[in-house]
């Protein structure tokens, strides 16, 4: 297994159930390969800190629509951060070289390991993480989670290190 990405976007909340995206290339749409069906992990961040991690096999437009239009039907309320923030950064990784029958398990393992790393580092869960599914992980899941986690929270880690050394 290996990660391809991240593919970066800025997401703006346009209303209770709508959003707009801006790619790093200046396009106002999601771009391949995140538009196609296949295993992906994604992170929303705000002020350089991870606030939510998710996983999907849908194209990102479909996943975002679900997260923005959810109203509690079936117990799913969608992205909680959309009610409190005007925008967030979105980074998406495509999981490659993973057998199709292992995708779901691998995605949930990596997702939960990123959340665990956050909890271990900051003694708190990501601010807008609303649920997580834990599975017994393997070294490759933990390594990929570390790869994702290391791209975030640098500012918060630096602040915490300076606070404890002062």
Please give a handful of descriptors for the protein shown:
alpha+beta; single chain; globular; 5-stranded antiparallel β-sheet; 166 residues; GIY-YIG endonuclease
Molecular structure report:
This protein is of the alpha+beta class. The chain has a single domain (2-165), classed as GIY-YIG endonuclease (3-Layer(aba) Sandwich), CATH 3.40.1440. It is 32% helix and 27% strand. It has helices at 60-69, 103-122, 139-149, 154-165; strands at 2-15, 18-23, 40-46, 49-56, 87-96. A hairpin with a 2-residue loop joins β1 (2-15) and β2. α2 packs across α3 (139-149). The model is unreliable at 157-166 (pLDDT under 50).
Radius of gyration: 16 Å
Number of strands: 5
Helix content: 25-40%
What's the CATH topology label? Answer: GIY-YIG endonuclease
Give the low-pLDDT segments: 157-166
The succession of helices and strands, N to C, reads EEEEHEHHH
Main β-sheet description:
5 strands, antiparallel
Give me the number of helical elements.
4
Per CATH, the superfamily is: GIY-YIG endonuclease
CATH class descriptor: Alpha Beta
**What portion of the residues fall into strands of 2 or more residues?**
25-35%
Distance between the termini: 41 Å
The average pLDDT value, as a whole number, equals: 90
Shape: globular
What is the spatial order of strands in the main beta sheet? Answer: 2-1-5-3-4
